[in-house]
Protein backbone atom coordinates (compact mmCIF):
# COMPACT_ATOMS: atom_id res chain seq x y z
CA UNK A 1 0.00 0.00 0.00
CA UNK A 2 1.35 3.39 -0.97
CA UNK A 3 0.95 6.09 1.68
CA UNK A 4 1.47 9.79 1.06
CA UNK A 5 3.32 12.09 3.44
CA UNK A 6 0.03 13.85 4.18
CA UNK A 7 -1.20 10.68 5.90
CA UNK A 8 1.39 11.32 8.61
CA UNK A 9 0.72 15.04 8.91
CA UNK A 10 -0.87 14.84 12.38
CA UNK A 11 2.25 13.02 13.61
CA UNK A 12 4.46 15.83 12.37
CA UNK A 13 2.91 18.25 14.89
CA UNK A 14 2.49 21.11 12.45
CA UNK A 15 5.62 20.57 10.36
CA UNK A 16 4.95 19.79 6.72
CA UNK A 17 7.54 17.51 5.10
CA UNK A 18 6.70 17.76 1.42
CA UNK A 19 8.57 19.09 -1.61
CA UNK A 20 7.43 22.49 -2.85
CA UNK A 21 8.17 24.62 -5.87
CA UNK A 22 10.29 27.72 -5.48
CA UNK A 23 9.25 31.29 -4.83
CA UNK A 24 10.27 33.83 -7.46
CA UNK A 25 10.96 37.54 -7.47
CA UNK A 26 10.67 38.50 -11.15
CA UNK A 27 11.32 42.18 -10.40
CA UNK A 28 12.84 44.00 -7.44
CA UNK A 29 13.58 47.73 -7.38
CA UNK A 30 15.22 49.59 -4.52
CA UNK A 31 15.88 53.32 -4.33
CA UNK A 32 17.54 55.48 -1.76
CA UNK A 33 17.19 59.23 -2.13
CA UNK A 34 18.82 61.98 -0.18
CA UNK A 35 17.45 65.48 -0.70
CA UNK A 36 17.07 66.75 -4.22
CA UNK A 37 16.69 63.46 -6.14
CA UNK A 38 13.81 64.07 -8.58
CA UNK A 39 11.05 61.49 -8.33
CA UNK A 40 12.13 60.12 -4.96
CA UNK A 41 10.99 61.03 -1.48
CA UNK A 42 13.39 63.15 0.47
CA UNK A 43 15.73 61.06 2.62
CA UNK A 44 13.84 57.81 2.13
CA UNK A 45 14.47 54.25 1.06
CA UNK A 46 11.90 52.32 -0.97
CA UNK A 47 12.05 48.61 -1.78
CA UNK A 48 9.38 47.17 -4.07
CA UNK A 49 9.15 43.71 -5.58
CA UNK A 50 6.82 41.15 -7.11
CA UNK A 51 6.53 38.03 -4.94
CA UNK A 52 5.41 35.00 -6.96
CA UNK A 53 4.44 31.62 -5.50
CA UNK A 54 4.85 28.89 -8.14
CA UNK A 55 2.96 26.42 -5.93
CA UNK A 56 -0.33 28.29 -6.28
CA UNK A 57 0.51 30.32 -9.40
CA UNK A 58 -0.28 33.52 -7.53
CA UNK A 59 1.62 36.69 -6.76
CA UNK A 60 1.50 39.95 -4.86
CA UNK A 61 3.23 43.31 -5.05
CA UNK A 62 5.29 44.05 -1.92
CA UNK A 63 6.79 47.38 -0.93
CA UNK A 64 8.08 49.38 1.98
CA UNK A 65 9.30 52.96 2.39
CA UNK A 66 11.24 54.09 5.45
CA UNK A 67 13.55 56.97 6.33
CA UNK A 68 17.03 56.31 4.96
CA UNK A 69 19.37 55.11 7.69
CA UNK A 70 16.52 54.72 10.21
CA UNK A 71 16.27 50.99 10.84
CA UNK A 72 14.51 51.57 14.17
CA UNK A 73 11.54 53.22 12.46
CA UNK A 74 8.18 51.43 12.71
CA UNK A 75 8.02 51.29 8.89
CA UNK A 76 11.19 49.19 8.75
CA UNK A 77 10.10 45.51 8.76
CA UNK A 78 12.70 43.57 10.72
CA UNK A 79 11.00 41.78 13.62
CA UNK A 80 7.68 40.61 12.20
CA UNK A 81 6.40 39.96 8.71
CA UNK A 82 4.84 42.87 6.87
CA UNK A 83 1.84 42.17 4.61
CA UNK A 84 2.22 42.68 0.88
CA UNK A 85 -0.10 44.32 -1.64
CA UNK A 86 -2.66 46.34 0.23
CA UNK A 87 -2.49 44.35 3.48
CA UNK A 88 -2.66 40.88 1.90
CA UNK A 89 -1.93 38.65 4.94
CA UNK A 90 -1.21 35.70 2.64
CA UNK A 91 2.06 37.20 1.35
CA UNK A 92 4.57 38.71 3.75
CA UNK A 93 8.18 39.80 4.07
CA UNK A 94 10.73 41.14 6.54
CA UNK A 95 14.46 41.89 6.63
CA UNK A 96 16.45 39.58 8.88
CA UNK A 97 19.58 41.52 7.94
CA UNK A 98 19.83 44.94 6.31
CA UNK A 99 22.98 46.94 5.57
CA UNK A 100 21.77 49.03 2.63
CA UNK A 101 19.81 48.66 -0.61
CA UNK A 102 22.98 47.07 -1.95
CA UNK A 103 23.06 44.27 0.65
CA UNK A 104 20.18 42.77 2.63
CA UNK A 105 18.50 39.48 3.51
CA UNK A 106 14.83 39.25 2.59
CA UNK A 107 12.63 36.70 4.38
CA UNK A 108 9.41 35.66 2.62
CA UNK A 109 6.19 34.12 3.97
CA UNK A 110 3.31 32.65 1.97
CA UNK A 111 0.08 31.40 3.55
CA UNK A 112 -2.77 29.61 1.75
CA UNK A 113 -5.59 27.14 2.28
CA UNK A 114 -5.05 23.54 1.11
CA UNK A 115 -8.01 21.17 1.65
CA UNK A 116 -5.72 18.14 1.30
CA UNK A 117 -4.06 19.12 4.60
CA UNK A 118 -7.27 19.11 6.65
CA UNK A 119 -10.67 20.62 7.19
CA UNK A 120 -11.00 24.35 7.94
CA UNK A 121 -9.61 25.93 10.01
CA UNK A 122 -6.85 23.26 10.06
CA UNK A 123 -6.10 23.57 6.33
CA UNK A 124 -3.63 26.47 6.35
CA UNK A 125 -0.18 25.92 4.85
CA UNK A 126 2.55 28.48 5.54
CA UNK A 127 5.77 28.45 3.49
CA UNK A 128 8.98 30.31 4.34
CA UNK A 129 12.03 31.25 2.28
CA UNK A 130 14.98 33.60 2.52
CA UNK A 131 17.23 35.25 -0.05
CA UNK A 132 20.39 37.32 0.23
CA UNK A 133 20.21 40.29 -2.11
CA UNK A 134 23.67 41.65 -2.82
CA UNK A 135 25.01 43.99 -5.46
CA UNK A 136 26.67 41.86 -8.11
CA UNK A 137 26.12 40.16 -11.44
CA UNK A 138 22.33 39.69 -11.09
CA UNK A 139 21.51 42.72 -8.90
CA UNK A 140 22.91 45.97 -10.20
CA UNK A 141 23.01 49.42 -8.63
CA UNK A 142 23.84 52.87 -9.92
CA UNK A 143 24.07 56.36 -8.51
CA UNK A 144 21.28 58.70 -9.45
CA UNK A 145 22.22 62.33 -9.65
CA UNK A 146 24.48 63.35 -6.80
CA UNK A 147 22.65 62.03 -3.81
CA UNK A 148 20.84 58.78 -4.43
CA UNK A 149 21.10 55.15 -5.46
CA UNK A 150 18.89 52.84 -7.50
CA UNK A 151 19.17 49.03 -7.66
CA UNK A 152 17.25 46.30 -9.51
CA UNK A 153 17.53 42.62 -10.32
CA UNK A 154 18.65 41.82 -13.87
CA UNK A 155 16.93 38.43 -14.00
CA UNK A 156 14.27 36.69 -11.87
CA UNK A 157 15.40 35.53 -8.43
CA UNK A 158 14.58 31.89 -7.67
CA UNK A 159 14.18 31.29 -3.93
CA UNK A 160 13.84 27.72 -2.57
CA UNK A 161 11.34 27.06 0.22
CA UNK A 162 13.28 26.55 3.48
CA UNK A 163 10.43 25.65 5.86
CA UNK A 164 6.74 24.80 5.81
CA UNK A 165 4.04 24.40 8.44
CA UNK A 166 0.46 23.26 8.34
CA UNK A 167 -2.21 23.92 10.93
What does this structure look like?
There is one protein chain. With about 170 residues, the chain is mainly beta. The chain contains no helices and twelve strands. The strands form two sheets. Strands 1, 2, 3, 4, 9, 10 and 11 form a seven-stranded antiparallel β-sheet that branches. A five-stranded antiparallel β-sheet has the order 5-6-7-8-12, with no helix packed on it. The protein is elongated. The N terminus is likely disordered.
Task: Tag the structure with descriptive keywords.
mainly beta, 53% strand, disordered N terminus, single chain, 167 residues
Quick overview of this protein structure:
The chain has 167 residues and is mainly beta. It is built from no helices and twelve strands.
Radius of gyration based on Cα positions: 18 Å
Strand content: over 45%
Tally of DSSP β-strands: 12
Helix content: under 10%
The class by helix and strand makeup works out as: mainly beta
Compute the average pLDDT. 81
Reading the helices and strands in chain order gives EEEEEEEEEEEE
Write the layout of secondary structure elements.
Elements: E1 23-25, E2 28-33, E3 44-53, E4 58-67, E5 82-84, E6 88-100, E7 103-113, E8 124-134, E9 139-144, E10 148-153, E11 157-159, E12 161-166
Antiparallel strand pairs: 1-3, 1-11, 2-3, 2-10, 3-4, 5-6, 6-7, 7-8, 8-12, 9-10
Amino acid sequence: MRVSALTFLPLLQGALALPFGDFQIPSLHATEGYGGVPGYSLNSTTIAFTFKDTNTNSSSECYVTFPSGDHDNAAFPSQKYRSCGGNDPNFGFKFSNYDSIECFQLDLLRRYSDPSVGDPPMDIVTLFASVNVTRGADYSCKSIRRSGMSCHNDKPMIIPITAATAK
